[in-house]
Amino acid sequence: MYWYNWDFWFFHMWWFWIFNLIFYWLIIFAIIYFINSRKVEKWETALDILKKRYAKWEITKDEFEEKKKDIT
Asked: What is the rounded CA–CA span in Å between residue 8 and residue 24?
């Protein structure tokens, strides 16, 4: 009977450590996920939008230069 109890506690001890490792890993993962999800996105400036429109050929070079002067 004595060895049976010892085996039980030994087995229980390992499950306790495994459970704690998983639990703490999940907490650390949740904290990292929360920090990364709260990062502020960069706002696009008017010049960035104008450059994208010029890259897509929505406006010509003359229009780009004219609007660029208006913005700056």
From this structure: 24
Q: Does pTM top 0.70 for this prediction?
A: no
3-state secondary structure 2-66: HHHHHHHHHHHHHHHHHHHHHHHHHHHHHHHHHHHHCCCCCCCCHHHHHHHHHHCCCCCHHHHHH
Mean pLDDT in consecutive groups of 10 residues from the start of the chain, 72 residues: 59 79 96 82 85 94 94 86
**Burial classification of residue 2, based on how many CB atoms lie within 10 Å of its CB (0-12 exposed, 13-18 middle, 19 or more buried):** exposed
Angle at the Cα of 58 from the Cα atoms of 46 and 62, rounded to 5 degrees? 75
